[in-house]
Amino acid sequence: MTSDVETPKSGAEAAVALLLDREQVERLMGLAFKRFGIRREEAEELLAETLLELSGSAAAIRDARGFAFHVFYIRCCRWLAREGRRREDTAGLDPGAGRTNGQTNGEPERALALKQAFGRLSPTCRRMLAGYYFEGLTLKETGVATGHSWKQVWKRLDGCLRRLKQCLEV
């Protein structure tokens, strides 16, 4: 009888396993494009950073694919936050910024709607969402920052996302 539980791997073994798993690499690239709108070249750079972070991990990793996904996802979130700040900083410098074929792409309106919807959430929800998704904190770190256990954070994040979605639909 075989076990479904993977044997713990070192960070370097997990990085090599990810590098050799083309299916997982393509899945991560697809995530970067579909979820975050990150182009392939930038996603490859984020993947390289993920591999470096994995290889430098001293702790034994039980689920290499899951851990790699988490690290890559956090990298994508940070990239998105960095790009958002960069666009805000340069918005007034380029008169053609944000235009495609003479039309606006709606980013400022969407960003404003998201900011307003985010403002309608409770302070706890805002702290949890910002900590976990934008700052890249773990569930445990987010729980410490908000005064909750990681299990409570896990459950509340789902509710906070649903409320955010409702606020965006109004």
How does this model look, in words?
A two-stranded antiparallel sheet has the order 1-2. The protein is mainly alpha-helical. It starts with 10 loop residues before the first helix and ends with a helix. It folds into 2 domains: 91 residues, no CATH class; 65 residues, Arc Repressor Mutant, subunit A, CATH 1.10.10.10. The longest helix is centred in the middle third of the chain and has 27 residues. The protein contains 8 helices and 2 strands. The N terminus is likely disordered.
Beta-strand residue fraction:
under 5%
Count of domain modules: 2
* Low-pLDDT segments: 1-5, 92-103
Radius of gyration: 19 Å
Q: Looking across the biggest beta sheet, what order are the strands in?
A: 1-2
The total count of helices amounts to: 8
The averaged pLDDT comes out at 78
Q: Which sheet architecture does the biggest sheet show?
A: 2 strands, antiparallel
Helices and strands, in N-to-C order?
A: HHHHEEHHHH
Helix content: over 70%
- Quaternary state of this entry equals single chain
From the spread of the alpha carbons, the general shape counts as globular
| End-to-end distance | 53 Å
Number of distinct beta strands: 2
Structural class: mainly alpha
